[in-house]
Specification:
This protein is an alpha/beta fold. It has eleven helices and ten strands.
Length: 294
C-alpha cells in the first residue's frame, strides 16, 4: 500500500518568526547567529522569540521560494520592531543550517530536539542578566520553551500553543476516516525511519520522534506555579486546535494563567493572511505591564 502522507509532513508549520527592531541593534555570535534589538530609552525587559517547526531565518521567514505564507512574510522581524517600539528588548535567532537567503538541508536535517535545545539554551544564557527575561514561543516552539530553565523566566507567552502532545495535534489535522488511518500508519512507521529523513521542509523524523516521546507539555510547567502564563490562540487556527488552549487552565489550576482567544484569529493571531504584529505586540505588552512587577 502506497501512503500519501505528504500533507502530514506539512501539517505542522508551527514556525516561529523573528523580528528586526528599532534603535541600538547589536549582533552577536555563539554556536548560532542571533540578534538583540533594543528600544529607545530604558528597556522593560528582554523577550526571547522561539521558533516552531520550520527553517526560519533571523527575519522569521522561510528563505525558500514557494506559495507558503511563511516564505513571504517576516513575522518576527515585524513583531520585534513592534515590541521595541513599546519598550522591550527582543532576541531572535536563525535556526541551525538556515541563513538569510537559503537553507542548508544537510545541516538542518540534523536538528533533533537535543540539538535545538542546545541552541536555545545557548541563546538564553546570553540574554541580559540585569533585566526581566520573558519567553515567547509559538506553535511547536511551545514544546521547546518548556525545556528552558523556567525558574529564570519572569513570564511566559505561548501563541498557538500545544498543551498536550504533538501527536494529538497531528491526529486532529485529519478530517476524514481515511486521513485518520493514514496518520496512524505514518506515526507507527515514524520510529523506523532514518532520524535525518526530512518530513517536508519542516523537520527531520528524529525531531518528531523526540517530541512525541515528551510528556504532555503542561506537565513541564506544573512545578513553576509562580511563573505567569499568557496563552494566546486564534479561534480560526487551522494548525493547532483552539481546544488546546483551555487545557492549560484545567491542568494548571493553581497557576497565574490568562487565556485570550481571538475569535477570527489565525495561527499567527492575525486575520486572514496577516500576522498583525502591532496587535500581537500590544496584547503582550498590556499583559506584561500588569504582571512584570509582581
Amino acid at each position: 500500500m502506497r501512503l500519501k502522507l505528504s500533507w502530514v509532513w506539512l501539517i505542522f508549520c508551527g514556525v516561529f518568526l523573528l523580528g528586526t527592531s528599532a534603535a541600538d541593534t547589536a549582533m552577536k555570535k555563539s554556536n548560532t547567529d542571533f540578534i538583540l534589538t533594543r528600544p529607545v530609552g530604558v528597556s522593560k525587559g528582554t523577550i526571547l522569540l522561539i521558533h516552531g517547526s520550520a527553517p526560519f531565518n533571523l527575519d522569521g521567514r522561510i528563505p525558500i521560494e514557494g506559495d507558503s505564507i511563511y516564505s513571504k512574510i517576516s513575522f518576527y522581524k515585524d513583531l520585534a520592531w513592534s515590541l521595541n517600539t513599546l519598550g522591550w528588548s527582543v532576541v531572535r535567532y536563525s535556526k541551525l543550517g538556515v541563513s538569510q537567503n537559503s537553507v542548508d538541508f544537510e545541516e538542518y536535517k540534523k536538528t533533533d530536539l537535543k540539538l535545538l535545545m542546545q541552541q536555545l539554551k545557548d541563546v538564553w544564557s546570553k540574554l541580559p542578566k540585569n533585566q526581566p527575561k520573558i519567553i515567547f514561543a509559538w506553535s511547536e516552539g511551545t514544546l521547546h520553551a518548556s525545556q528552558l530553565p523556567l525558574e529564570q523566566a519572569k513570564a511566559v507567552v505561548l501563541l498557538g500553543a500545544i498543551s498536550t502532545n504533538i501527536q494529538d495535534v497531528i491526529l486532529a489535522q485529519a478530517k476524514t476516516s481515511e486521513e485518520i488511518n493514514e496518520v496512524k500508519i505514518f506515526l507507527k512507521l515514524l520510529s523506523s525511519m532514518p532520524r535525518n529523513k526530512m518530513l517536508g521542509i519542516d523537520r527531520p523524523a528524529g525531531r518528531l520522534v523526540d517530541e512525541i516521546q515528551m510528556r504532555d507539555n503542561w506537565q513541564y510547567f506544573l512545578s513553576f506555579p509562580k511563573i505567569p502564563l499568557l496563552i494566546l490562540h486564534g479561534g480560526s487556527d487551522s494548525e493547532v486546535s483552539p481546544k488546546q488552549a483551555a487545557i492549560w487552565k484545567d491542568k494548571l489550576a493553581k497557576h497565574h494563567i490568562e487565556i485570550k482567544i481571538r475569535p477570527t484569529g489565525n495561527h499567527m493571531y492575525g486575520i486572514g493572511q496577516s500576522h498583525d504584529s502591532v496587535f500581537l505586540a500590544t496584547t503582550i505588552d498590556n499583559w506584561l505591564s500588569k504582571i512584570i512587577d509582581r
